[in-house]
Write a structure and sequence with these properties.
Elements (H helix, E strand, L loop, with lengths): L3 H7 L7 E10 L2 E11 H4 L4 H6 L1 H7 L5 E12 L2 H6 L7 E11 L4 E9 L13
Antiparallel strand pairs: 1-2, 2-5, 3-4, 4-5
C-alpha cells in the first residue's frame, strides 16, 4: 500500500496498492546494477518473480494488454549507500549512477517508478536528438 512517504517520493496516490520488485543485474558474474521498482498493482496484477526475471514489460504488454506510452527519466550520480554496497561489487568506487524512471500507460496513468543504481564502470548515458 502506498504510504504518504512513498507518495511524496514516487508520485503514486496514497492508498494505491503497489508491487515492489528488486532485481540485481550481473555482468560476467559480477553484480553491476540493482533496480528498485514499484508497479501499480492494478496494472501489474499477477506479476511473479519468474516474470520479473524474464521481462516485466513483455508481460504487461502481451499478457495484460498494457500500452506503454511514455517514460520520464532523471539521471544523477550519488554516493553509494549501505544497500548499494550490499548488492553491488563496487570495489574502489564510492558512488553509483542513478536513473529514475517514471512510466505511463497510453491513458496517462503512472504505473511504474524504478530507481536503477548502476556501477560507475559500466554506466553509459546516450541521448539521440532529432529535429
Amino acid at each position: 500500500i502506498c504510504t504518504e512517504q512513498l507518495s511524496r517520493r514516487l508520485g503514486f496516490k496514497v492508498g494505491e496498492e503497489l508491487i515492489r520488485v528488486v532485481r540485481v543485474r550481473s555482468l560476467n558474474g559480477s553484480a553491476r546494477q540493482v533496480d528498485h521498482g514499484y508497479f501499480l498493482e492494478s496494472i501489474a496484477k499477477g506479476l511473479t518473480p519468474e516474470i520479473a526475471a524474464d521481462s516485466i514489460y513483455g508481460y504487461l504488454e502481451h499478457k495484460r494488454g498494457v500500452k506503454v506510452m511514455a517514460s520520464r527519466r532523471t539521471v544523477s550520480v550519488e554516493l553509494a549507500n549501505d544497500e548499494d554496497c550490499s548488492y553491488l561489487d563496487l570495489g574502489k568506487y564510492n558512488c553509483v549512477a542513478v536513473m529514475e524512471s517514471q512510466s505511463y500507460t497510453s491513458d496517462g496513468i503512472l504505473f511504474e517508478v524504478t530507481h536503477a543504481r548502476t556501477h560507475p564502470e559500466i554506466f553509459h548515458y546516450r541521448v539521440n536528438s532529432k529535429r
